[in-house]
Amino acid sequence: MRAVIQRVRRAAVHVDEKAVGQIGPGLVVFLGVGRGDREEDVDWMVEKITHLRVFEDVEGRMDQSLLETGGESLVVSQFTLYGDVQKGRRPDFTAAAGSAEAEPLYQRALAIWEKALGPEHPKVAISLNNLALLYYAQGKYAEAEPLYQRALAIWEKALGPEHPDVAISLNNLAVLYGDQGKYLQAEALYKRALAIREKVLGPEHPYVAISLTNLAELYRLERHTNPQPL
Asked: Residues 22, 50, 55, 79: which is the catalytic one?
């Protein structure tokens, strides 16, 4: 198992110009799962990443972890971390695990958080979102939907209905609905996320632009799918 970690103020994953995953301050983790990786490797990686002291304390020293700062994490599956270029000129990715092998390891990471923190902790919502993102990338919308819904419920209960992280969860679920042709459900969530961001972050914040773009793309897709008669 290999990971490249980037500390961020905010980050988003875009698919077809739609933000399908977003976080505020925290860590983006590009995670490569290798053939033969075991549950023990997941345990070690989760422990290592969440306790890495890569954030500044009040004195400016790099002395705080993701857990201590309350930051978020966005895990992006990245098989290219296992690219081997020792021979030839074309990278060899045979050491990378397929999605079928990666899925139970993501599930294991979720189980670790639930056991350690309880099923309604915000960190569990982050892990739910990461697993849902994997399912989304695989086109497993039915598996992704309940995970996104559960993450949204956790954020709303823990942070309140108008917190920016709730808007992120709303956006993720809206993208999923839009890709399934559930335009009315998607529109309602996009509009709610937009309203939260405009109120809390201000009308010129980059996340407001993301919400506007996603909503515009939904309308374009809906018109293309259901053209109006002349």
From this structure: 79
